[in-house]
Amino acid sequence: MIIEILFILVFILLSNINLSSFISLYYYKRNIYNIGYRNAGTSNIFNLYGFKPALIVGLFDFWVKGFIPFYFLNYLNVSNLIYSIFLISVVFFHMFSIYEKFRGGRGILISLGIICALGLWKEVIIVISFFKFFEYILWKNNALSTFLGIITFIFLTPFNLENVYVIISLELVFILLLFKRALTNNIDLKSLLNLNLLISRILYDRDLNDIPDLR
User: Fold this and answer.
1) Where along the chain do its domains lie?
2) What is the per-residue pLDDT across 176-212, written as a single tens digit (0 to 9) for each?
3) Global pTM?
4) What is the DSSP string of the chain?
5) DSSP readout, 119-131?
6) Are 194 and 42 in contact (CB under 8 A)?
7) Which of 113, 116, 143, 206 is deepest in the core (most CB within 10 A)?
């Protein structure tokens, strides 16, 4: 059990590390929370610095923080409750990092990594391909595609997994993803009272009259 506890603690601490913030601050000498979309997401670092830094961040979030810990956790002796708490904690601390004054990324890639580790990689490919196709021909907005993907998985998950604890945990993660979009990194709960601003953030992941969405 000691190995399982150490494994969980290491990856919870690792989930607090936002590589995009580190790259932006120490390599480009810029605070990623003050530029672009003002978050530590892969799309922000892609628009700011290009493909290579975004690829590094994306692979780190998806594989190291999302897929790998849960793939191996399936082989460790942990209870359903601990598994569920770990699942929610990893995503939560990625979005609200204790190293970044409770700021962070949007949690999309790390969530996709977890979903794939749980065996739903086919569903991930289908959902992403479906909304990317309509994004290309219709709405031209990646943030809207992401929102629709989150909503889709809210309904798909209960039909594709059997473990009730995991299903509930994932549903809470999806709600957390939407909450993060609504709250952004401002931690200003009063902003949630502005309906137009709230809708713009949830659907398009940006404030009203904010910078053009190039994602």
Assistant:
1) 2-204
2) 999 998 887 766 666 667 788 888 888 888 775 554 5
3) 0.92
4) -HHHHHHHHHHHHHHT--HHHHHHHHTS---GGGSTTSS--HHHHHHHH-HHHHHHHHHIIIIIIIIHHHHHHTTS---HHHHHHHHHHHHHHHHSBTTTTTB----HHHHHHHHHHTT-HHHHHHHHHHHHHHIIIII--HHHHHHHHHHHHHHHHHHH---HHHHHHHHHHHHHHHHHHHHTTS--GGGGG-HHHHHHHHHHSS-TT-S----
5) T-HHHHHHHHHHH
6) no
7) 113
What single letter denotes the amino acid at residue 39? N
Task: Measure the N-to-C terminal CA separation of the chain; round to a whole number of Å.
Answer: 43
48 token code pair:
């700011």
Token reading at 139: 């709405």
User: In this structure, what token pair is assigned to residue 63?
Assistant: 């594989």
